[in-house]
Amino acid sequence: MALFVWRSGILAKVHKVIFGLGETGLSCARYFDRVGVSYSVVDDNPAPPRLAALHQINADAPVSLVDPEIIYGASEIVVSPGVPLSLPVFAEARARGVVITGDVEMFGELANAPIVAITGSNGKSTVTALVGYLASAQRSGVFVGGNIGTPCLDLLNDEATLYVLEVSSFQLELATQLPTRASVVLNLAPDHLDRYESLEDYYSVKSNVYRNCSNAILNRGVSSEFPIPQSSTVRSFGVDAPPSATDFGIIEFNGERYIGLGDEKLIAIEEIPIDGMHNVLNCMAALALGTAIGLDMDAMLRDLKKFRGLEHRCELVAKIGGVAIYNDSKATNVASTEAAIRSFGLEKNLVLILGGISKGADFSPLRLLAKKFVKQVLVFGSAREEILDSLDGVCPSVSCDSLEEVVAAAISHASDRDVVLFSPACASFDMFDDYQARGNEFKSLIAGVAI
Fold first, then answer.
1. Annotated catalytic residue: which of 122, 187, 192, 278?
2. pTM for the model
3. Of 195, 199, 138, nearest to 164 (Cα)?
């Protein structure tokens, strides 16, 4: 079978076009195949494993390069999140009356159970996993996915009682009316500036998660205004004291700090099993979402104490000779790395590893933190010169050609009670398929040193 198949006459039979053959594109193909809808796929550079996976789903699925004739002849185009909507072909398709949608928008129309939607610049995966964990402990039929793990169309199930979705800004560009039982924007920080014309555009897209929600969960530390329906119930969380009985915050009592709901002390911060103030906020958001969907608070607090966090997110990999080594490969932007530094940093005790693709990021916010907490910076990847320029004169730095070289240098520079923190502040695509592959390689290299 040829890799690309487009035969005369087949266009008239195809009603849907899947634009982009990544994980989302394959999930769309599985859904269309399951419900008997004819479709084709367009992708200018499909990876051979993706093509093989598509032909496992449907051996006769037509695949072509991006061709205006195919695009304009579709009844609907399902655009994968990684494809920029700014492509001229989409504007022309809209002008011709072609419907353009995404998998999350489709899911919102098809889902047979309440949806919780979680977005933000950082912490999305942690909170999505935590809400799924807390909900699954209290009820059956909880399905977790979206931008984390299983693509949302693969989650559709007649037995579902709740869907917990991580949604990215790319997905929210098209999912402007996602009907949710509860939604949250965890935080906002500069990211994806290679995709959006401005920071305001990026923030505006994130706010789409609130447009059709029954319960809006707000971070009091985020200053942006959101389009929340008048009928929505609003709950908030933040690092300050709860301003009302329905809000979450921090209560100080007898020298200890607690997550509180109104005046009620819920759980001591020292009892939370995942480190850092950013994770305290993540736990507040999860508890607020759980409250909004009717979960029992006592049970949530009991189960929260058992939650151990996610792989590649501030994950303890090893302790070697008094040096703790953490894998935070999921830190693909500067704000996420800032949070990690604050979690682990004591005075000049960090050996910090940065690097990858910058996505147009500004690394200068790391200067003050690096000056206070970092004894050595190691940089690698395509953004290393940008990072070195941004941190020039702040702390000692070394440029490395590979992750293997980075790990060797990190071990040599670290001493007793230091922390080696692999928190790249960059995307991974210059050297790895994704942040998981990058984190796995880091852990494998550390395992080799630890033997």
1. 192
2. 0.77
3. 138
